[in-house]
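R.M. (postdoc): so does anyone remember the format we settled on? I'll just put the structure tokens first.
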């Protein structure tokens, strides 16, 4: 049986005996060696497969703590603004806790699979005529009015849960890597990793990888114009690397073809930076933040297309060889 993240790291989290544990079995995700990519890139590459969390993304690490604390403090509902993964996670953990979730998404900017997942989990989804930053501002105002508890990464409990990925990586490797490499949207995960490293007394560098054109990138999970945690990223002295959508797509495809990991495009941003040679170190830990099934539209657009054949063995054999 999977130990809930809160129970596994209780001594490192702001929880007490009165905190109800709202869990879906998050955390304890695989750390996978990437042998083919390692050989190709000339580094020792390890992949933290956060897509195996209950809703398919790393957001669940923080959401279990945020929703557990919200319930402890008497919350009757939660709210978030989201480009998709936070929405699904908030909806799932609110459902688990038996409280409503209100989700604000920027109009037309969220992968359809993520919206469908969120709706199926019972959240009330409202499309905001604006971008993510405007949706977040509205969510923050409603939280200030006391009607909902905000569970975006500006909620410190979210980052407390997310820092546990650092503990797991170091524990599984038996030592610190030369660098941690993560996608950079709002910067909450960079802030969380920095907190985890600080608690370990570590100075291992963090490379935060953003899209070149933030507001329009195909990598919808990091399609955030103004990172709300930009100051925390700067304070953590993270190395910010900017990559193009073309680099993200190539890394995304390569990760799937060579290592068998189908992630969403934003999750490949870190690999794009490594492929370019923008990350220093020989032993690197890349966090793969979300599952590819969360963005099937882009997978259909950029993946190899199926070939129509007759039900004839010779025709199938010929087609199989290209």
């Amino acid at each position: 049986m999977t130990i809930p993240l809160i129970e596994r790291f209780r001594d490192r989290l702001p929880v007490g005996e009165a905190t109800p544990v709202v869990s879906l079995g998050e955390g304890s995700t695989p750390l996978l060696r990437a042998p083919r990519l390692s050989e190709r890139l000339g580094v020792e590459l390890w992949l933290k497969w956060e897509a195996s969390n209950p809703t398919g993304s790393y957001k669940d690490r923080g959401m279990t703590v945020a929703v557990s604390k919200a319930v402890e403090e008497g919350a009757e509902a939660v709210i978030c603004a989201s480009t998709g993964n936070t929405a699904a996670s908030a909806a799932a953990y609110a459902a688990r806790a038996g409280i409503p979730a209100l989700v604000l998404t920027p109009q037309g900017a969220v992968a359809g699979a993520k919206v469908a997942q969120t709706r199926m989990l019972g959240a009330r989804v409202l499309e905001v005529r604006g971008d993510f930053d405007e949706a977040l501002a509205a969510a923050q105002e409603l939280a200030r009015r006391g009607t909902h508890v905000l569970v975006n990464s500006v909620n410190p409990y979210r980052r407390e849960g997310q820092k546990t990925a650092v503990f797991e990586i170091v524990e599984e490797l038996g030592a610190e890597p030369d660098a941690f490499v993560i996608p950079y949207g709002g910067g909450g995960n960079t802030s969380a990793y920095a907190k985890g490293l600080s608690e370990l007394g570590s100075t291992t560098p963090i490379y935060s990888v953003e899209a070149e054109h933030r507001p329009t990138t195909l990598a919808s999970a990091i399609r955030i114009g103004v990172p709300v945690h930009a100051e925390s990223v700067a304070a953590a002295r993270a190395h910010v690397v900017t990559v193009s959508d073309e680099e993200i797509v190539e890394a995304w495809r390569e990760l799937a073809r060579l290592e068998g990991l189908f992630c969403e495009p934003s999750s490949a941003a870190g690999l794009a930076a490594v492929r370019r040679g923008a990350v220093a170190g020989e032993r690197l830990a890349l966090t793969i933040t979300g599952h590819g099934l969360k963005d099937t539209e882009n997978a259909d657009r950029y993946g190899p297309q199926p070939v129509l054949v007759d039900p004839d063995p010779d025709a199938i054999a010929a087609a199989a060889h290209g």
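R.M.: ...and that's the designed sequence above, right after the tokens. Also worth knowing: Residues 59-154 form a domain with the Rossmann fold fold (CATH 3.40.50.1100). The chain has two domains: 5-57+157-302, 59-154.
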